[in-house]
Amino acid sequence: MAKTKPSQQTKPQEHTGTQHPEEYRDDLNPNAGAGQNIGTTGTGPLNDARTVYDIKELHRRMHDFGDAELRQIRILPVGSRLQQGATYIDLSDPHPTEFTATGEMTVEPGHFYAAKSDVPYQLWNRLIGVANPVRTGTGNIDGEIKRS
Predict the structure, then answer these.
(1) I need a labelling partner for 59 at 20 to 30 A (CA). Which of 2, 22, 38, 140 fits?
(2) C-alpha 89: how far from its chain's center?
(3) Contact by Cβ (8 Å): 89, 127
């Protein structure tokens, strides 16, 4: 098998605005990096985010969840940009439903967004109202309910 060198091209989604003259860049690209999901993972606002356990309003409303479960649901800080194409849920909504973010979306005051990619599968299903015991971790494939 032949050895190949890595491409010297930049990522297709990585646009720096250098195609415009310097004096016009800010006018033509006011939010040059908005919505681009590039860079390293594991850094950013989610790592420093509060959890549902820390937010009194949500903690009271989600009394069906244990403290350990509430600590697993991180909430994005106000002003954070949502990742384009990622799935989120707004826990400030009385009947939260999943939505897919677009590149210009940010967390506004009064909203509590949790990212699907950051919440355990069974816990996410409970958040969105799935009643199937197997999908929420409260039953098994044979239909028997787990006993704690």
Answers:
(1) 140
(2) 8
(3) yes
51 is written with which tokens? 């959890």
Q: Where are the beta strands (DSSP E) in the chain?
A: 50-51, 74-75, 87-90, 98-100, 113-115
Q: Which residues of 90-123 are buried (b: 16+ CB within 10 A; e: fewer)?
A: bbbeeebeeeebeeebebeeeebbbbeebbeeeb
User: Which two tokens mark 117?
Assistant: 């990619």
Each of the 148 residues of the chain gets a pLDDT tens digit; together they read: 555 555 555 555 555 556 767 787 777 777 766 656 554 444 444 556 799 999 999 988 888 899 999 999 999 999 999 999 999 999 999 888 899 999 889 999 999 999 999 999 889 988 988 877 777 777 665 555 554 4
Question: What tokens appear for 67 in the block?
Answer: 């403290």
C-alpha angle with apex 137: 45 to 112, nearest 5 degrees?
Answer: 30
